Amino acid sequence: xIGRGEQALNYAILLLFSVIALYPIVxxxxxxLAPPGELVGFGIPSSLHLENFSNAWDEGHFSTYLRxxxxxxxAVVSASTVLSILAGYAFGTMRFRGATAGFYVxxxxxxxxxxxxxxxxxxxxxxxxxxxxxxxxxLPQVALSVAFGTFWMRAFFLATPRSLLEAARIDGAxxxxxxxxxxxxxxRPAILTMMxxxxxxxxxxxxxxxxxxxxxxxRTAPLGLAFFxxxxxxxxxxxxxxAVIVATPVVLVYVFLQRHFIRGMLSGAxxx
Amino acid sequence: xxxxxxNREVPPATPALPxxxxxAPRKPGVAEAPPGEPRHVxxxxxxxxxxxxxxxxxxxxxxxxxxxLHQWDGLTPATWVGLDNYREIVxxxxxxxxxxxSLVLILFYAVIPVTLGLVLVAALxxxxxxxxAVFRTILFLPLVIPMVVVAVIWRMIYxxxxxxxxELLRAVGLDSLTRPWLGDxxxxxxxxxxxxxWVMTGLALVLFMAGVQRIPQxxxxxxxxxxxxAVREFFAVTLPNLRGEIAVALTLTTIxxxxxxxxxxxxxxxxxxxxxxxxxxxVYNRAFQVGQVGSAAAIGFSLACVIFLFSFLITRISExxx
Lengths: 272, 322
Hints:
A: MetI-like fold, 13 helices, B: mainly alpha, disordered N terminus
């Protein structure tokens, strides 16, 4: 059993590192609440000013940015989920010529960094007149998410009991019905984990938005915040309020679905 | 706590993915199922995903290689220059140092967090502490926050006048140490690196804590019977059994260090001078600011190769020692 001293040491270590992890985050929230112009240096503000949030919201056009981010995130998460389920189903339960080679091709996508793709993507999409549209933000992100999703769903389908598939087959279900009526309901937790990770990566993506989008009403939340930072270098509480606004949606999803975040990251979800 | 890998619905890691490969053997009983009967319908299921993937990953990747062999400003016709862009990476000081900087960042993003995580895990007893789930949630939080927001936060911390780091130094009487951290030639890169350490340490710690709890108690008992002290116990039991987790942590953090763009773009723009210039920033800068598209493509493709090489090496090393 565990001694009292050991117990205390455990708590001391965990507490210390939790404080280190939280300090900058609490600091920015406090700065966001401080009176405009008061330089608090992450200290306790003299009075609370919730209106910083509404000011930042209006001045920074964050409603526009959040709308863009939501449109892109919903499109990317739903498209890549469906495509990944279909492809993972093929790799995980069927045998066909080129399956192994095809899977390795998808694996490549887990390691290819955005930086190696963004240059030709920009010039190709510009020729197709797709830059400065939502498509330019959605399609490349779907493609990279599908690489991860296919890998993830294949592993899930490989781990599902064969009896489940066979029972459905004996009942005369087609492969399509088996997938959507039997396997997908059975795999809801694994699918949700994948969706949560893809959502986080899409919401936080910056480089793609920076390169592809120039008109203001298409800016995603992180890109909007970057521009907002350029304009408000002196008014720290307004900038801090903007930062909190941009982080809140993803943090909320994290708080409610944290088991999925942590499980996904811990099982080595390498994102290229 | 339920084992992180222990849930029924979690797909067992397949040996095909380098990072997870090392974890696979820990999950016995899930034999690689026979991949089903032959079905041509498989191609149909594959087609939509493969189409998007080919159009927006495979094609651009090939196009990157093609562009990297040219000199092109993005507007006028390109000229073929062979491997000149790659030669420039090796020979030109600024580009070479960009790659060297990313190696320094690996120290801060990967080596320090993993080492720190291991030291802490050795100090923590293996028993559960109450509220572990809460600690886990908090330690993971920095990984979830958008990098752009992280950059905004740390710019405020490093701010020369009223930043909390300099305020803290003044408060404890170390005024002489205060400086404009992100504007200092020698310290800007470490300052950017520390942000990476802040983000990644939680990942390593949570990963190792979960790993240690799955090591069978019998191994520790056996070591104790053999008269092993705490230190030997760590090196003989804990460390070898955490190999899979260490490989995952090193892979994730190393890739993050090499891909670092957002943070550098938003905090230092590669400055002061070239002090924090990294390959990802140079890709953006050359392609979209100064019109050296071919060179940008060469840097991007080299970066992809470096990431591939590191992932491969980490997996190989962790597997050979098994």
